[in-house]
């Protein structure tokens, strides 16, 4: 399995990176006529083969490989011919048009001779181009025919109905068949033993015993080393996820490495030519060892993930009881899968056993195994089994869920997981019930492939988590952070890009392994990948993933160069001149606009988009503007300016008129602002450019917090200022530079208005910082004897309780004498 994974990965990389050239195509001296004759000869033979309706899967794969080779060679020949046609047309254009008319002067002989030669070469190149295009079309059609034949053959095989498993005529020969199957295995072992020479019986078994003991000792030592170095150990609190993941992998390897090493020695001996075990009995023994190895690994890895004995080392949030239930379902399911695989593969590999396995036996066997596997799989697919207690309580509760980002992401993913769960349940039900109706092959196909795919996906998922944690560890290591002096922003982008490429590699690897089991061959996958990269023809439009990715790359690189040029002009070059600042800003902004247009034009040119289509769109847009789309176009252009100039960006805290909040999304027509009350305000883009706009976090999040306070007139202003500065500097979110300041703002009739101003690195905390400062003022001022005076008012009481008497208005008192205490 590991060798197959490595081979598939290398093959995929080779197809993506290296040009596919056959020995015929590599020889540039081979005449085109010879190449065309070889192509047509190969395709004629394939057409004769396709007349035979019983095309085996092996023959179909060989035919696809041959046709793929023809397509690659013809594509290279067509590209060479196209380049030759372009070059010859350029030469003919350089010669100019030939003389026309009766009175025109005759063309000089050297020019006429060269023109005739170029025309002949052009005719030959066009002919080669057309023949190569014809070969590509013919080969592509043949590939489609072969694929159709294979799909038809697979469908007919799966829908082939055999004997019903519950009929007496089907059940009657079952005991004899089982006895014959076991007896043939025993006879194969006896025949193998009797066929060995005396020296092979002694020397061969001594060698096998030596290999066995060496593998046992090495596996035991390695198991102890891995568990001691990386495995779990008793802890009181839950370790971090990276440590738990490493411990789970180590525990899984340690639990499976000892039996896997022993079984690996057996498999190696059964597949080595010259070995005493290289026989039919060795094939049976090797299949049994492979199935046991799968069982060991399949049961060891889930145990490491769920860790029911030590809940602190779990990788999931499931409770230990549910983890144990899942393990209790996985073990018998894996055992049934391995037994079924052994019987079916042994019947295909050993002729003596294939004659015994009659259709009646396969019908009853598949029915029993599929029923048991289906019931276990359905029990394993219960949604409640994979939910934590918190999730179950939240689902059963009527209280609204928290509207945070994580919950929104989970809510968005629920439809996908529900659809996937429904699909898995449907496939399991069909695979379980199909053998009961006689569709043995369909049941085997669905359940065995489903279980095998689940095993591979689980292994790849664990490997993905391990590699993602390794990437995070490397990007956050002291070597990258300190010695290489990589900034946090750069490290975050590098980690994201590396993990994104890892996910793509894991996905490609998983598809390349799982798809052949479901009937999609490796040749089809590579052909589809090459078609997607080279270009998909839809009508007169060619969609090429390679051109699209290259255009995006060119656009990003060009935009980065333009921004670097703007930064250099703004910070280094223009400040050295005597140009005023406003003109400097206009120059850099203009270069940015022009650079964006140039980058877009380069990307369009690289993508191969026909500019006439863009001209048609622009013409239609201009007509639409004349019919009343000025407002829409105004907002559209304003949106482009907002995206390029970036006076606001997503996440900024802005104030637009009476609306204040965070920018959530900048669309082409309008911008969405979320207020503090979680209300969405849709503001047209043109309004953002035509009126004043306050952006608290435009360049950075540094801002000033102002906290006013009033003290009594006889207060010690210096002591109050000193105390205010102490309170401000003690706050953890106060910046040391610029330093806080305490100011006397004005003197009223009854108080001195003062204000403490401090700077913070995150202005979003302004309300909480001001609240903390006020709390500390209220706590410290009374201890220091500083009075915060209340507004004084004169209250007139009604005489004799007369309700009809007019109540005088409350007035502020005059200034109090200096010899009285204003408190």
The total domain count is: 5
What share of residues are in beta strands? 5-15%
What distance lies between the first and last C-alpha atoms, to the nearest angstrom?
89 Å
Low-confidence stretches: 1-28, 399-405, 807-823
Output the strand order for the largest sheet: 6-5-4-3-7
Spatial shape? flat
Structural class, judged by helices and strands? Answer: alpha+beta
Helix content: 55-70%
Major sheet description: 5 strands, antiparallel
Number of strands: 10
Mean pLDDT: 78
Helix-strand blueprint:
Elements: H1 2-17, H2 23-26, H3 32-50, H4 57-95, H5 109-158, H6 168-171, H7 174-194, H8 198-230, H9 241-270, H10 280-306, H11 320-349, H12 351-356, H13 359-380, H14 389-396, H15 405-433, H16 440-475, H17 478-483, H18 488-514, H19 522-534, E1 536-538, E2 541-543, H20 545-573, H21 581-607, H22 611-626, H23 630-645, E3 653-656, E4 659-666, E5 670-675, E6 680-684, H24 685-690, E7 694-695, E8 703-711, H25 717-730, E9 741-747, E10 752-760, H26 766-784
Antiparallel strand pairs: 1-2, 3-4, 3-7, 4-5, 5-6, 8-10, 9-10
Helix pairs in contact: 3-4, 3-5, 4-5, 8-9, 9-10, 9-16, 10-11, 11-13, 13-15, 13-16, 15-16, 16-18, 20-21, 25-26
Which keywords apply here?
three-stranded antiparallel beta sheet; disordered C terminus; Methane Monooxygenase Hydroxylase, Chain G, domain 1; 10 strands; five-stranded antiparallel beta sheet
Give the gist of this structure.
The chain has five domains: 18-99 and 107-158, Methane Monooxygenase Hydroxylase, Chain G, domain 1, CATH 1.20.58; 174-387 and 421-523, no CATH class; 536-609, no CATH class; 624-695, Roll (SH3 type barrels); 701-823, Alpha-Beta Plaits. It is built from 26 helices and ten strands.
């Amino acid at each position: 399995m590991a060798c197959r994974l490595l081979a598939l990965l290398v093959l995929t990389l080779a197809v993506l990176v290296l040009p596919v050239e056959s020995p015929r195509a590599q020889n540039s001296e081979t005449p085109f006529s010879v190449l065309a004759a070889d192509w047509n000869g190969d395709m004629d033979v394939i057409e004769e083969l396709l007349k035979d309706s019983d095309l085996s899967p092996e023959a179909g794969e060989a035919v696809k490989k041959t046709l793929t080779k023809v397509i690659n060679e013809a594509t290279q020949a067509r590209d060479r011919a196209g380049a030759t046609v372009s070059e010859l047309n350029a030469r003919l254009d350089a010669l100019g048009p030939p003389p026309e008319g009766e009175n025109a002067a005759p063309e000089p002989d050297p020019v006429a001779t060269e023109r005739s030669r170029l025309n002949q070469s052009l005719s030959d190149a066009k002919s080669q181009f057309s023949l190569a295009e014809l070969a590509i079309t013919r080969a592509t059609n043949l590939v489609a025919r072969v694929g159709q034949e294979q799909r038809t053959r697979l469908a007919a095989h799966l829908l082939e109905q055999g004997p019903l498993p519950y009929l007496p005529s089907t059940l009657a020969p079952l005991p004899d068949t089982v006895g014959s199957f076991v007896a043939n295995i025993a006879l194969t072992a006896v025949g193998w033993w009797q066929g060995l020479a005396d020296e092979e019986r002694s020397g061969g078994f001594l060698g096998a015993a030596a290999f066995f003991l060496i593998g046992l000792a090495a596996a035991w030592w390695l198991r102890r080393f891995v568990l001691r170095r990386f495995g779990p150990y008793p802890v009181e609190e839950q370790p971090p996820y990276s440590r738990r993941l490493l411990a789970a992998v180590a525990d899984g390897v340690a639990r499976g490495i000892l039996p896997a090493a022993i079984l690996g020695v057996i498999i190696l001996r059964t597949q080595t030519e010259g070995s005493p075990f290289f026989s039919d009995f060795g094939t049976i023994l090797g299949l049994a060892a492979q199935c046991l190895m799968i069982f060991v690994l399949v049961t060891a890895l889930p145990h490491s993930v769920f860790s029911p004995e030590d809940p602190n080392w779990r990788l999931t949030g499931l409770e230990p009881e549910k983890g144990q239930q899942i393990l209790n379902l996985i073990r018998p399911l894996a055992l049934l899968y391995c037994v079924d695989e052994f019987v079916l593969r042994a019947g295909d590999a050993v002729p003596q056993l294939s004659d015994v396995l009659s259709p009646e036996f396969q019908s009853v066997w598949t029915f029993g195994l599929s029923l048991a596997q289906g019931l276990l799989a359905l029990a394993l697919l219960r949604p409640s089994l994979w939910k934590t207690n918190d999730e179950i309580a939240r689902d059963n509760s009527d209280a609204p869920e928290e509207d945070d980002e994580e919950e929104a992401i989970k809510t968005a993913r629920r439809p996908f997981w529900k659809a996937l769960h429904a699909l898995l349940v449907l496939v399991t039900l069909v695979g379980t019930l199909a053998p009961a109706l006689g569709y043995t092959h369909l049941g085997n196909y669905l359940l065995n492939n489903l279980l095998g795919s689940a095993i591979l996906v689980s292994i790849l998922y664990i490997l993905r988590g391990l590699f993602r944690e390794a990437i995070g560890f490397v990007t956050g290591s002291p070597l990258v952070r300190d010695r290489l002096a990589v900034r946090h922003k750069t490290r975050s982008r590098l980690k994201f890009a590396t993990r994104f490429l890892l996910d793509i590699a894991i996905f490609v690897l998983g598809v390349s392994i799982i798809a052949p089991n479901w009937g999609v061959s490796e040749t089809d996958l590579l052909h589809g990948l090459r078609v997607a990269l080279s270009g998909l023809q839809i009508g007169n439009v060619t969609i090429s993933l390679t051109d699209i990715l290259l255009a995006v790359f060119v656009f990003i690189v060009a935009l980065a160069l333009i921004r670097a040029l703007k930064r250099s002009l703004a910070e280094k070059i223009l400040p050295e001149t005597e140009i005023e600042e406003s003109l400097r800003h206009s120059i850099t902004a203009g270069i940015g606009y022009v650079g964006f247009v140039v980058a877009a034009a380069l990307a369009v040119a690289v993508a191969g988009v026909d500019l006439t289509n863009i001209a048609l769109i622009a013409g239609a847009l201009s007509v639409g503007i004349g019919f009343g789309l000025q407002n829409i176009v105004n907002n559209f252009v304003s949106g482009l300016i907002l995206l390029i100039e970036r006076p606001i960006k997503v996440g900024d805290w802005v104030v637009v008129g009476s609306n204040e909040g965070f920018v959530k999304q900048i669309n082409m027509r309008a911008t969405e602002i979320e207020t503090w009350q979680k209300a969405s305000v849709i503001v047209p883009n043109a309004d953002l450019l035509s009126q004043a706009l306050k952006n608290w976090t435009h360049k950075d999040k540094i801002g000033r917090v102002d906290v006013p306070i009033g003290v009594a007139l006889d207060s010690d202003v210096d002591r109050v200022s000193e105390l205010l500065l102490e309170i401000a500097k003690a706050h953890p979110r106060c910046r040391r530079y610029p330093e806080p300041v305490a100011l006397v703002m004005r003197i009223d009739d009854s108080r001195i208005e003062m204000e403490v101003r401090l700077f913070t690195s995150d202005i979003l905390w302004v309300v909480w910082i001001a609240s903390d400062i006020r709390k500390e003022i209220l706590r410290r001022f009374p201890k220091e004897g500083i009075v915060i005076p209340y507004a004084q008012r004169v209250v007139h009481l009604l005489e004799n309780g007369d309700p009809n008497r007019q109540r005088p208005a409350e007035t502020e008192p005059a200034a109090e004498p200096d010899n009285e205490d204003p408190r």
